[in-house]
């Protein structure tokens, strides 16, 4: 493992950097959310205390910006470029895979498709300089201080953990979207039955028994809708708390129904 290298850094070193900064990013996001909302919220995409985007972002900075460490201005500019590319690409991938946006900068000036915005890019640039110049020397010392045999055990355990957590999170998101899809289909079915019932009542083409049967069917669909929406609320609670601006392109009405059910309004 010590021979595996990526641009003058071995994979063992970069992976431990990724883990440390993913955890520190989670701490930062959690503190921010706690101050903003007044309560603890797990702000990570994963179930555990890690924000992978911070880990990947810092690994990119460490790997590619080492030649510019002595020039703060160039370091700042390239930090903005790298973090903007990472955030935009991550947002694009999540939207493509899950047909959902997990954060939204559309209400901020100078944004690109709501995935990145100038204000936060400046924050990421300043944070990157702080990490590279102040934080990373200590992290570098800690990683190199760990005896390599112990480090390999830590590497293996963390690698297995991330695979398990990512798999569990992926299953959670897939299950959540399957519930959203079921709710979406029920909504369409209820709408169709109501429209058909109203047409038949106006045209007086059906008997009262058939109308009553249609009304009973609609009532059953609504009961099923309430049951599934309760499951969807439970299943999506962590994701909605971690990403309060979470939106779905395919199931926007479903999310409005969930918010209405929780808060009593759309």
What does this structure look like?
This protein has 266 residues and is mostly helical. It has 7 helices and 6 strands, in the order E-E-H-H-H-E-E-E-H-H-H-E-H. The strands form 3 sheets. Strands 1-2 form a two-stranded antiparallel sheet. Strands 3-6 form a two-stranded antiparallel ribbon. Helix 1 (11-37) packs across helix 4 (118-145), helix 2 runs antiparallel to helix 3 and helix 3 (72-98) packs across helix 4. It is elongated, with a radius of gyration of 24 Å. The protein starts with a strand and ends with a helix.
Descriptors:
266 residues; mainly alpha; two-stranded antiparallel ribbon; elongated; disordered N terminus
Strand order of the largest sheet: 1-2
Order of helices and strands: EEHHHEEEHHHEH
Approximate strand percentage = under 5%
Radius of gyration: 24 Å
End-to-end distance, in Å?
53 Å
Structural class: mainly alpha
Mind sketching the topology for me?
Blueprint (H helix, E strand, L loop, with lengths): L4 E2 L2 E2 H27 L14 H13 L7 H27 L1 E2 L9 E2 L3 E2 H28 L2 H56 L4 H35 L4 E2 L3 H12 L3
Antiparallel strand pairs: 1-2, 3-6, 4-5
Helix pairs in contact: 1-2, 1-4, 1-5, 2-3, 3-4, 5-6, 6-7
Quick take:
With 266 residues, the chain is mainly alpha-helical.
